[in-house]
Sequence to fold (274 residues):
Amino acid sequence: MSSPSGGAVDLLILGAGWTSTFLIPLCTARGLSHAATSCAGRDGTIAFAFDPRSDDPAPFQTLPHARTVLITFPIRVPGASQRLVRLYQQTHPGGPKTAFIQLGSTGIWEAGPTLRPESHVWTDRHSKIDEKSERAAAESELLSLAPETPTTVLNLAGLWGGQRQFKNWVPRVATSKDILKRKGSVHMLHGLDVSRAVLAVHEHFDRAYGQRWLVTDMRVYDWGEHAHWVRELIQEESIRALPRAPELLGRGMDSREFWNTFELEPEKNRLGEE
Fold:
């Protein structure tokens, strides 16, 4: 159910984009009240645009009080994560503390999620992040507010589902056989499982205070399985079958800790099967 005008909600989604097309129906199915924003206030959303450099509280005054605020857009300006939290808290005093979830990307881990290093490497949520990433720095800034303010970050693998289909990206990414050879692993996450992850954190935020999570569908996919030059790749690289062995893919992302902590497992872990 959505919130009546001016009422408090369980979940406030800042930025009603692709994720909300899965998250809002799941909230409704579970009986969780919700509200969402967009820059123009389209489709029944609240008009809201976050200016990362502004200390004006006025835009926040139209937002409802929420048990959890989900930030779906990236923040890159130093001080902006703290500013968003402060202005929201300033305009919504009293009541239980609001918790904040920031959606991020697994791209903050060095080398990126689809490049093939010279040797096989496993990355988990404790692995070193790219210290030059403005986005990662902003996420760390948000996490630093815990435990006084409940905050957490979900760094998500490549997103698919609905209008976002992996098969449509392959021709744009693997534009030649030589490029395909340099590609190794790719990690994905369906929009339904993004939504399930968000609501799991919402319901058990005590397990998430100040934590950064790496979230995939717990599978490692091979770029080679999804391109036009599969037969040539197998012959030239002396590959017996696809997917290639993990040591040939170069990189694996380990998201077990998230799913174990919140006692879940991905529902959509067959790429392309809605």
